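Tokens in:
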């Protein structure tokens, strides 16, 4: 089994994955990677939303987990799947947020902007994911699942 911080091979036509370091600049790096990859895949209309939501997932992982992180993107049958993997098995916890609080609204944002989202346990911890559908035309992407 490969650790999360091990590099994967080059991105395939419709899959991309990157290890992320445990440092504050990783959220910004994740945003740039998402934007560049979605532009390459010709689904740039999803970039703003995907960039915001990936930033939330990475920031939460940095704050609430230990160990390596990995960002994965997949484009399948008109759907963009974005996930952040970490080594903690505990899923996201939705807490009450004070109206004057400066943070703590990540799950609310994901609820509002993603077409679907959730978390699942993995062999190395968990994956928190969200899915977006493009309003534009997706490239002809084969279903591989």
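Residues out:
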């Amino acid at each position: 089994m490969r650790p999360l911080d091990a590099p994967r091979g080059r991105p395939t036509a419709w899959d991309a994955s990157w290890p992320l370091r445990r440092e504050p600049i990783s959220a910004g790096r994740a945003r740039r990677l998402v934007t560049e990859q979605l532009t390459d895949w010709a689904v740039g209309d999803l970039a703003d939303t995907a960039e915001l939501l990936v930033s939330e997932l990475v920031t939460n992982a940095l704050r609430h987990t230990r160990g390596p992180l990995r960002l994965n993107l997949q484009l399948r049958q008109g759907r963009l799947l974005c996930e952040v993997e970490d080594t903690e098995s505990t899923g996201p916890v939705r807490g009450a947020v004070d109206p004057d609080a400066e943070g703590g609204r990540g799950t609310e944002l994901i609820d509002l902007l993603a077409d679907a989202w959730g978390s699942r346990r993995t062999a190395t911890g968990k994956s928190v994911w969200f899915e977006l559908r493009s309003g534009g035309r997706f490239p002809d992407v084969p279903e591989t699942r």
